């Protein structure tokens, strides 16, 4: 079974600084999808960014970008120019190319310090 | 317009009772899911339906019964509630099938069993 590991239960960053959240996963498949979701105190799960494994180019969404290292099975999220509204739990998720099941990591709680 | 909605948002009930949580999506998606998020924020999939058919059924007590009257709705009924059922329950939907397939989450239902 696929597993997703987020080794940092908590992280903090100064406002306007950059922070990187780590995620590793275990799979024997060559094609799959990876996601980062944000869960603010409101509990809503919000998609931040997604990456297709067959694309070598790292996905970018405004201040959010990923460092996708397929050989190392690593998918880290970089948040640039951190804002107070970025404070949330961040979940990394893996999805096989076929089938409908997502596998989530245990989350990283990000605190943004004013 | 709300994409994935759940009712109720909060549910407080006594042990032994039977309760239902409703979920509706207006995205035209074929696949819907139920997740349980425990006090440690761990997200665990419970069920997934594709076009009203059950496709994922993780190891969940049979007190939990999903019902999908049509592909836009996936309700969760829980019999004989126990203290350990206290959690936040998330409904989600996705287009289904192959391809980059993002899950869209509902706002969650916080269930407290007393």
Q: Could you give a quick summary of the protein structure above?
A:
The complex is a heterodimer of chains A (114) and B (114). Chain A is an all-beta fold and 114 residues long.
Overall description:
Chain A has no helices and 12 strands. With 114 residues, chain A is mostly beta strands. Chain A has a single domain (3-108), classed as Immunoglobulin-like (Sandwich). Chain A starts with a strand and ends with a strand. Chain B is mostly beta strands. The N and C termini of chain B lie far apart (34 Å).
SSE inventory with pairings:
The complex is a heterodimer of chains A (114) and B (114).
Chain A: E1 3-5, E2 10-14, E3 19-21, E4 24-26, E5 32-39, E6 46-52, E7 60-61, E8 64-69, E9 74-79, E10 88-96, E11 102-104, E12 108-113
Parallel strand pairs in A: 2-12
Antiparallel strand pairs in A: 1-4, 3-9, 5-6, 5-10, 7-8, 8-9, 10-11, 10-12
Chain B: E1 4-7, E2 10-13, E3 19-25, E4 31-37, E5 43-50, E6 53-57, E7 64-70, E8 73-78, E9 87-94, E10 104-105, E11 109-113
Parallel strand pairs in B: 2-11
Antiparallel strand pairs in B: 1-3, 3-8, 4-5, 4-9, 5-6, 7-8, 9-10, 9-11
**Which homologous superfamily in CATH is the superfamily of chain B?**
Immunoglobulins
List the helices and strands of chain A in order: EEEEEEEEEEEE
Number of strands of chain A: 12
Compute the separation of the termini of chain B in Å.
34 Å
**Average pLDDT level of chain A:** 91
Shape of chain B: globular
User: How many domains in all of chain B?
Assistant: 1
Name the largest protein-protein interface in this structure.
Answer: A-B, 25 and 26 residues
What CATH first level of chain A would be assigned?
A: Mainly Beta
Number of helices of chain B: 0
Give the domain tally of chain A: 1
Q: Output the radius of gyration of chain A.
A: 14 Å
């Amino acid at each position: 079974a696929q597993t997703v590991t987020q080794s940092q239960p908590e992280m903090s960053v100064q406002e306007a600084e950059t922070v990187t959240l780590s995620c590793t996963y275990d799979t024997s498949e060559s094609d799959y999808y990876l996601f980062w979701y944000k869960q603010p105190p409101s509990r809503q799960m919000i998609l931040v960014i997604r990456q297709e494994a067959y694309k070598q180019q790292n996905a970018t969404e405004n201040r959010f970008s990923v460092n996708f290292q397929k050989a190392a099975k690593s998918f880290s999220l970089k948040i640039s120019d951190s804002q107070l509204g970025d404070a949330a739990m961040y979940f990394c998720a893996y999805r096989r190319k076929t089938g409908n099941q997502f596998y989530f990591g245990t989350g990283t709680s990000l605190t943004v310090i004013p | 317009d709300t994409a994935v909605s759940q009712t109720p948002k909060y549910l407080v009930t006594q042990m032994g009772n039977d309760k239902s949580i409703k979920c509706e999506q207006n995205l035209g998606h074929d696949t819907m899911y139920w997740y349980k998020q425990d006090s440690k924020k761990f997200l665990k999939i419970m069920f997934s339906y594709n076009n009203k058919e059950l496709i994922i059924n993780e190891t969940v007590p049979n007190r939990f019964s999903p019902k999908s009257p049509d592909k836009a709705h996936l309700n969760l009924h829980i019999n004989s509630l126990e203290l350990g059922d206290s959690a936040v329950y998330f409904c989600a939907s996705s287009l289904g099938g192959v391809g980059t397939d993002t899950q869209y989450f509902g706002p969650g239902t916080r269930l407290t069993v007393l």
